[in-house]
Amino acid sequence: MTEMTLSGINVLLTRPAAQSAALASAITGLGGNVCELPLIEIEPVTDVAACETIKSMILNLDHYYAAIFISTNAARMGMQWIDRYWPQLPVGLSAYAVGPGTAQVLKEFDWPVFVSDKGVTSEDLLALPGLRQVDGKKIALFRGVGGRELLAETLRERGAAVDYLELYHRHTPDYSQNVLADLIHDQHVNAIVVSSAQILDVLLHSLHQDVARLTTIPLIVPSERVRQRALDAGIHIVINAGGADEGAVIKSLKAIAPAIRPTL
Known about the structure:
Elements: E1 10-13, H1 21-29, E2 33-36, E3 41-44, H2 48-59, E4 66-69, H3 72-85, E5 94-97, H4 100-106, E6 113-115, H5 122-126, E7 138-144, H6 150-157, E8 161-171, H7 179-186, E9 191-193, H8 197-207, E10 219-221, H9 224-232, E11 238-240, H10 246-260
């Protein structure tokens, strides 16, 4: 008999288009309902000069001690670049992932992949043994254009030379003013999944003066940092899933399901 532990849960997924299929399938498979409104769009870098810079760094990947990937997007696009110029990975190169979902993508390559089991923040990654003693070592950091500087700054303070490989841009979709608020109302949304601080910011901005409508809707976030950011913005029920991967989100949804169902 199929487990229906998410019956009565109407979940809004907000991550980029085409990246929620597995999670949506898992939720519906457990009896929940899903609606999607991507609050961030991901576009690969196409500028000729930027692509030449990336190519140059990829060709010199054998000079690096480690490659760090800060998201599944960075992992997927980074692996495409690497696969284009390295039929076999450079000997001795290790991969570090921010979160188990990113690690899973990287494990498609035959190389050591390290990920913290403590959390999905830069701080958790920096606590891994292999990134503590990096004086004199070169590290390639795969990410989107812009973002937190803590990871690179801390590694540089520890003596490493850190190069950014910025592979994609993030854009906010151009929705009409009330589309998010109307969707939450019309679809009777009673749980929202947010996978990054930037998506949270777009969510808050999109609701404008309607943030109060989130007072009774649980918001599932990937880390304590994002949880605190949501609380500071006035959202009342914020659950730190400890990751943005499918398993972490499903676990959190199961935990809040009993409290949601009686209000349906």
